[in-house]
Amino acid sequence: MRYEKLLVNIMAVLMLIITCVKVDAYAAETDDSVFYISAGGKQIKVQMVDNAATKKLKEMLDEGDLTINMTKNGFEQYGSLGTSLPSDDTYITAKAGDVLLYNSNTICVFYASNSYSYTRIGKVQNMSGDELKELLSGESLTFTLSKKSFGTVPNTGVESRTLKFRIMCFTGCAAIMMWIIVYRRKKYLRGELIAKKQKI
User: What DSSP string describes 5-32?
Assistant: First the structure.
C-alpha cells in the first residue's frame, strides 16, 4: 500500500508539471533548409535553396531578429533587408509562392507572376495560390525572421502539438491514478469481505 500511495503522489506531481510548466515554443525539425516568415498573424513556410544569399541570411539572424516592413504592389510584397546579400541574378519569371532577392538587398514574396532578374531564396510551401494571394494582396505586412525561424516549427504549430502532448500525458497520469484508486478500493473491499466471513 505504501508503494501505491507513493505512485499516486508521483502521478499527481507529474500532472501538476504537465499542466503548469512552460514548454519552449520551438521544436527542431530535421530539415534546416526550411524557414518560416511570420506575417499577418500567420506563418509562411518556405523551402529555401542552398546558395550564398541564404547562407548570408542565416548569418545575419545569428546577430538578432530581422523585421522587414513590406510594401505591396500588383504581384508581390517586397521589403528592404537593410543590407546586401550575395546575389546571382538571373532572368526569372516569378510565380506565386516564389521568394526572391531583388537588387541584392530586397526580399520579395510573390502572389502573382512577374519577369525580372532575381536571385532565388526559396519557395512557399503548404499554401495554395489563392491562400497566398489573400494573405499578401491585402495591406502591406511586416515580416519577421529570427534565428529560430530556420529548422524550427513556429509557435502556431508547436503550441497545438504541445497542447495535444499535455492532454495525452495528463490523461495517462489521470488514468494510472484512477486505476490505482480503484485497485486499492477493490483490495480494501475484498479485505473487508474476508474479515466479515472470518467473523461469521
Answer: HHHHHHHHHHHHHHHHS---S-EE-S-T
> CB under 8 Å to 178, separation ≥6 — which residues?
none
Render pLDDT for 23-62 as a digit per residue (tens, 0 to 9): 444 444 445 677 778 777 777 888 889 899 988 988 888 7
Quick one: cell of 84?
546586401
- Residue 29: per-residue pLDDT: 45
Q: How far apart are CA 156 and CA 43, in angstroms?
A: 8
Contacts of 38 (CB under 8 A, 6+ apart): 44, 143, 144, 145, 149, 154
How far is Cα 91 from Cα 108, in angstroms, rounded to an integer?
Answer: 15
C-alpha distances out from residue 197 to 43, 73, 159, 187, Å: 69, 88, 56, 15
Q: Give the chain's count of helices (H) and strands (E).
A: 4, 12
pTM attached to this predicted model: 0.61
pLDDT digits (tens, 9 = 90+) for 154-188: 444 444 455 666 677 767 767 776 766 766 666 65
C-alpha–C-alpha distance, residues 67 and 143, integer Å: 6
Per-residue pLDDT tens over the stretch 104-162: 999 999 999 999 999 999 999 888 888 888 888 877 788 887 776 665 544 444 444 55
- Cα(76)–Cα(96) distance, integer angstroms: 8
Q: In sequence order, what are the residues at sequence separation of 6 or more whose Cβ sits closer than 8 angstroms to the Cβ of residue 169?
A: 14, 18
